[in-house]
Amino acid sequence: MKISPSPILVTVVAVVCIGLAIVYNAKQMAESAKAPRPAPSKVSAPNVSVILATPGNYQAYVSGHGEAQSIWALTLKAQVQGEVTAISPQFATGNMVQKDAVLATIDSTQYAQAVASAKATLADAELALQEEQDLGAQAKREWQRSGVTQAPSSPLVYRTLQLKAAQANTDNARFALKTAERDEKNTRISAPFNGVILSRDIDLGSYVNVGDTIATLHSTDKVEISVPLSLAQWQNLSNELAAPVNLQDVTTGTRWTGYVARFERHLDATSRQRNVIVALDNPFEQTTPLLPGTFLSAEITGKKLSNVVKLPASAVAQNGQIWFVDEQNTLVNVMAEKVFERGDFVYIKPIEAMAEVKVVIRPLVSYLKGMLVSPTLENLSPVVEEQAP
Fold this sequence. Notes:
389 residues, alpha+beta, conserved putative lor/sdh protein from methanococcus maripaludis s2 fold, Elongation Factor Tu (Ef-tu), domain 3, CATH 2.40.50, 25% helix, BSH_CzcB-like, membrane, Efflux RND transporter periplasmic adaptor subunit
């Protein structure tokens, strides 16, 4: 049988190709091994700005907010009834009035008559009392002249009961006169304190009854601001009354200087915090009057604290951590234990009892613990200011 040469030829060609491929790959691998290798890349150490933070003594400040309110706020009501016969020109909204200034007058005819009647009744009662006193003295003399040594068996002999009745009638007439005089005085409606008029609710010729609203007044001698504080803030607050307080209008930025008036001894039902009461005397006589209703920020001078670290507020991350550089120039993060804040600075407890710490001024969210960095020391002069003596 005759065999075809085609399969044999194909097999020989395939073997030759495989051999050539093996020789070529071996040559390429040898050349790659002899080629120069690239130098290993160095680990990048990013620059970070740090400050050298050291513990010191600082004056603590406690901050809060509150609304200025007059120490007295009064809805003035009528004590008597009658027609309004006169109104003072000062009795208008927005005007300031002095204590005891007459704002309006109610017809006093019937009240003047009541005073006169009460005076007449008192005069009659005093006359009757004097007569009973004389009759009682006369009865005692007659009993003594009678020669009877025993005391009278009845108080009527000395007219003791009649004298008591006359005295009671006199006392009643005297109080009736005081009541009539009070009612007559109440026909002249006056300001009970130095104040500003918020509203006037009567007009000339109008008729008022007892209990009708006459006006609304707020005192002008003093305003008070209730400032709620947290427990941590109270720990930094001194117990000294009259401590200075910096007040600022949150809308206009106008500033005033008040003082601590008192401390409340209970928690506010709404905020569940304890309030400190700040006061400002003569608010309407300030260069810029402090009007009731103004919403204020209050900065209260607190205790003098020792062993506290002052840092820029930017050094504290949003999660409350601070980053610092250790001796190996690697980053370390810890939670900041805030003592108080003021302006652009935050005051914290020392970090791990370290005397000096290189704190990162502006930490980034990309920082990792143990990351190698290149610290650049910055000298921020405000960090060493305002230290307490």
